[in-house]
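During the first year of the project, the team set up a workflow for recording each protein of interest as an amino acid sequence followed immediately by a discrete structure-token representation. This format lets reviewers and collaborators read both layers of information side by side without switching files. As required by the reporting guidelines, we include two representative entries from the current panel. The first entry is reproduced here exactly as it appears in our internal archive.
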Amino acid sequence: MATPEAVDTPVPPMPEPVRQRGLLPLLLVANSALMAVYMGVGSVLLPTQIAAIAPDDKVAVLGLIGGISAIFATAFNPIAGALSDRSGRRNPWILGGGLASLACLGLLGSVNTALLVGIGWCLIQATMNIYQAAVTAIVPDRIPAARRGTASALVGLGLPIGGTVGVLVASNTCQLDPVLKGRAWR
């Protein structure tokens, strides 16, 4: 039986959720950038770079690099997610993963052997999965339950927007680069 003090004690109201101004558009931008890298670099620039480096073995080299880099991607996503969970903060992981990916993209663009392309793409997969794990966790962390459908829709829009922009930018880059121009994937 409850004591009278327990019955008469009012329950404190739930704290108002912190308003996240601009968070939903930033989720769209963050996921679009992620997909632009994966689709633009992975679908256009990487095969073109491999075709320029190893024209006779381009299919085998691309398959080997893709397979090994998939292992990096698979391993780094849960590791990065666990680390960002333990730290309790997502922004440093997003910023760090994004900047590290940018540096690795610069490295990938400057190498000219299949081994270094493979190492560069594996590093990009690892750093982009650090970025992706933290960005993905924002929806359950910061978005109120009533807005999660909208947030998920914006996250999903990142694929067609980022994929399209990434492929267009990568294709134009191939056309402007004198080394890659004319070495299409044939």
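The second entry, processed by the same pipeline in the following quarter, appears below.
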Amino acid sequence: MKTKIASLCLAAVFSILAFATNTSAAEEGFYDKEHIRGFISLGGDFRGMFPAFQDYVNTVPFASGALKHKYSTDTSVYYGYAKYSKFNKYYPGIHFNIGAQYKQFMTWFDINFAITQISERPKSTVTAYAVDSTGTPTGFTSEFPLYDARWFSYGVDWMFGWKTLGEDAFFNLIPAVGIGFNMMNIHFTSNYVVTKESSDEEAIMRDRYYSTMAATFNVELEARLQFEQFSIGLYGGYRAVRYNELNVEGTNLDTTIFNTDNDGDTWFIGLRLGWTFLSPWEKKQLDKI
């Protein structure tokens, strides 16, 4: 539900801004399109999790439970456990930005990727012990596969910034703010049973990623050096993310046990290399030379 609400809000904001911009440009001459300059940039950053996010990634990917065979007539319930290393609270990220600049105002789409984090499986299989309906071990065992626990994320933020020290200053400070979405992708450690609370129907986790989408709010400050069309900047900021419950095989994981309705807030600091294209007006001036 939260994802649907966030998506509708984002769509409404984007539509209003686009309409307002086009109307102003057409009726009042709000800007001169001859002076609009496109730009692209590539950045890499170092991200740190806030406590709630660190708890999230060190709880959900390691969620475990009952194991059952996928084949034959064996319907016995098994339980087994393998010890995995926890994920670090720091991780690297990559950003690709594409946008436009008009005088000191800037707007762009920030496409970001969090590189896959892996907690390697301690062995290829786990020995699980069968239990009866009362939870008492029966003495039978079975082997089940283990997988690496993994997670990665990606998303897009629509950013708005302002060159506070002038359009063409050699040194500039650029505060920016934006909204968008983020997708968290998680791979569990084995083929555990998932039970729907509403119907008690059972499904089994597969060897695949499961995803959840979230709305985001992003603020950052960049200190930039501009060398004509090329630029280099040091940036840092805060990104707030609110993850929805993780849906696995058609049912949500229990939020009380697995804490899957959680924050994904991070702080970040990184380096960005950019290239600003010439505006139509600048190209015409060069043609006159």
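For the second entry, the following points were noted during internal review. The helical segments are 2-28, 51-57, 255-258, 280-288. The first helix runs from residue 2 to 28. Both points are flagged for discussion at the upcoming steering committee meeting.
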